[in-house]
Amino acid sequence: MPTALRSGPYRLFFYSNENAEPPHIHIQRDEAVAKFWLRPVSLAGNVGFASHELTRIRRIVTKYESHLMRAWHEFFGI
Question: Which of 26, 34, 58, 77 has its CA 20 to 30 A from that of 16?
């Protein structure tokens, strides 16, 4: 699970076997985890995050979208 970015309490990462899906990022804090598609940035799934925290996470993903896309393409060789 390569980490693409850390922001505050959040770890943004990829699972190495998910390159068949469109570019996306997983976000974890403690036991909570969410998944966001990168283009366009949108919530794909959530377990444990409150809605106000998802708003904060969406802002982080949007702010670093270009960085996360580069990391995706570099890791998966696309």
Answer: 58
